[in-house]
Design goal:
The complex is a heterodimer of chains A (about 210) and B (about 130). Chain A contains 7 helices and no strands. With about 210 residues, chain A is mainly α. In chain B, helix 2 packs antiparallel against helix 3. The chains are: A mainly alpha (about 210), B mainly alpha (about 130). The interface between A and B is large, with 55 and 53 residues.
């Protein structure tokens, strides 16, 4: 990244960015992490495309109308939305260098995240119990692939929250930890964006059919 | 988004200058309020079935989804054209182009395959 920037700046005639601060390392981490998220976005695009193509291939099995409980999905959506705003509060506390407040909001975010994953697992268990397993039809294969990939991301996000809480607890809100919190912030809000696609295209639109 | 930058300057968080832009309490609350509204309406439309036409309902809830994604991008992810000298925005636009090609291309090609090759559905008469 540093090299790319230098090249770009050389072309524009300026060898030094007058606004450049001293880099303590990790200066390009946020951009790198953003590019990772964009690649993750492509994974989800492929899974959405798969669902879009196979979503009506029921193979004589259960249909979305019989399987999906929209009230449950609405509760799940609320959980994820609450966790987004609470993570925002954690970031605001971190900006004010308040360790206690940051930790508190991180715990609350993790609890909302766990509620989300818990409800989703309960929904999966319920569906599988009714015989709607991933191998039942192409619709169910693509449904489980897409929704479970999202759920897995959220689960890893929760692990990441606890790891960061340990790091913040040990070293406080040093610039490196602040950067890690900012990365997780992008990751967490990005997962909420993906969930908008899931509840709209998978749950709501399939129920309409 | 300019508000984020002014806030940034006011509080003088120079040590986080490379952590990307961050929002204010006001931004988060506006984003949250908009998200709640933009989530509640599509769920209500589908669950109550107030609009007779299912196709119309479908297009409306898709429009709400797009609106909410933009809200999240602006108020939660703090996207703007200036972060990392525009590289963040360039990466996003590039990804969006790929996403549109992937989705539209897959649906289009597979739809035609289904229409033309599904047994029972007679293919367009070639003879």
């Amino acid at each position: 990244m540093a090299r790319i920037l230098t090249a770009a700046e050389t072309e524009s005639g300026a060898f030094y960015d007058p606004h450049e601060h001293e880099h303590a390392g990790g200066g390009s981490t946020m951009l790198g992490f953003w590019i990772y998220l964009m690649s993750d976005c492509l994974i989800f695009a492929c899974l959405f495309a798969t669902y879009g193509v196979l979503g009506t291939s029921y193979a004589g099995g259960p249909t979305p109308n019989e399987l999906f409980d929209l009230k449950l999905v609405a509760v799940n959506t609320a959980m994820l939305l609450f966790s987004s705003i609470t993570y925002g509060f954690a970031m605001l506390e971190a900006q004010r260098k308040r360790v206690g407040g940051t930790q508190l909001w991180l715990v609350i975010t993790a609890l909302f995240g766990m509620a989300f994953v818990g409800i989703e697992l309960w929904e999966f268990a319920h569906m599988i119990h009714e015989g709607a397993t991933p191998q039942r039809s192409a619709f169910l294969s693509s449904f489980f692939a897409l929704v479970a990939t999202h759920g897995l991301h959220v689960s890893f996000g929760i692990v990441w929250i606890f790891v960061l809480m340990v790091q913040v607890g040990k070293r406080g809100l040093a610039p490196a930890n602040h950067r890690r919190l900012a990365c997780l912030s992008l990751f967490w809000h990005f997962l909420d964006v993906i969930w908008i696609g899931v509840f709209t295209f998978v749950y709501l639109l399939s129920t309409l059919r | 988004m300019s508000t984020a930058h002014t806030e940034h300057a006011e509080h003088g968080h120079d040590d986080h200058a490379h952590d990307g832009p961050h929002g204010s309490l006001r931004e988060y609350l506006i984003g949250f309020a908009l998200s709640v509204v933009l989530t509640a309406i599509p769920f209500w439309l589908v669950m109550s079935g107030v609009i007779q036409s299912k196709v119309a309902t479908g297009f409306i809830i898709m429009a709400f989804a797009v609106a909410q994604i933009v809200v999240h991008m602006v108020y939660f992810l703090h996207m703007n054209a200036k972060t990392d000298e525009g590289w963040t925005a360039v990466a996003l636009i590039f990804t969006l182009v790929l996403v549109v090609i992937t989705l539209a291309g897959s649906l289009w090609v597979m739809h035609h395959l289904n229409v033309n090759m599904m047994p029972g559905h007679s293919a367009p008469d070639i003879t």
